[in-house]
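BUG-398 | component: ligand-complex export | severity: low

The export step for nickel (II) ion jobs runs without errors, but we want the raw record kept on the ticket for reference. Input record follows.
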Amino acid sequence: MEYKDLKKRADHHFPEIVEVRRHLHQYPELSYQEHQTTSFIQDKLKEMGIPCQQPLETGCVGIIEGKNPGDGPVVVLRADIDALAIDEEGAHKSNFISRNPGIAHCCGHDAHTANLLGTARILKDFQDEIEGKVLLIFQPGEEKLPGGGRMLCEQGFLQQQQVDVIYGLHTNPDFAPGQIGVRKGPLMARPDEFSILVRGSGGHAAAPHTTVDPIVVASEIVGALQTVTSRSVDPGEPAVVTVGKIEAGSAHNIIPEHAHMIGTVRSFSEETAQHINRRMERIVEGITHAHGASYDYKFDPGYPALVNTDWAVEHLGEEAVKLFGNESVRWMEKPVMAGEDFAFYLQHFPGAFFFLGTGSEESGSVYGWHHPKYNIDEQAFKTGAPLLASLALNFKKR
Ligand code: NI
């Protein structure tokens, strides 16, 4: 296989990849409810002559067998297929804006799916050059706990496959189309969730001395939580505590009974996450106690931190350079604080996750993940689809 032929095939399939992405974009579905999306993917795989299994209720896994499906390497390529509960905006997408109210592909999972279907096309073109087997995972529920990736890892399907390596990508507006963002070791954070309920005692707003005002207590907690990362975590270690939602009260003249806060903690290790968890609860305990209020505190562990396997990143970098030259690979100095359930696969198998550059002014792709105007520059498929194919075609067993 010549790299230029791989690129030629990718260019040949490019219009179809765009068409698929725009179709998926118009019919987004929420996590674990991706029924139409799953049958669409299954139909596409069938059309390509790729057999497909369905280990979970939604999503599916396509299997392309090469010369030695029993002996050769097993390479897994993963895309996620779910959308977000968000009302979409954006003139750049006016031809193919979401037709499902309140749901939209504002995290690029439509692009991940279309890109992997494009990779499937390319791999079929070079099927007799595949050594072992390539599994194409179209995974449900990336956006919502427990995580489709975790479910697939725990369900047993992947364990039976003797996986040698797994790769996945995410669209990223910080990089231009034609570029990829790569990093050895930690790439994405561990996102934990917390919930704090402050129980006070309500009453008339004009008689605060007869109440325990949960709004005042909650405000103090929000302020004090800012010291967790600034005073209790090593300054060299990235960590975030954010209260994302706060809810209390019903009228301007009533002191309510409760105040409720939820938020997220980001870190890169179990140890740091647990340290933050303990510090947070002590702050909540101390402040509520001081005011004569009480509390419920809950800390829900989310996905683990996403940590890439060094040799898998090296293979990725080499293939990208061979296909697109040195300038295409951007080595990232810092990890990002967003989370990804791809982290679960990397707890079971070696592999790497990377960022596919999709940012450009022309496409209006200047907004971050989960923004109502999120968009991608579709030129990125010319990089993403052949690169995944190349990772599979040129993989050597370790
Ligand atoms: Ni995403």
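Assignee comment: Attached the raw record above. The mean pLDDT is 96.
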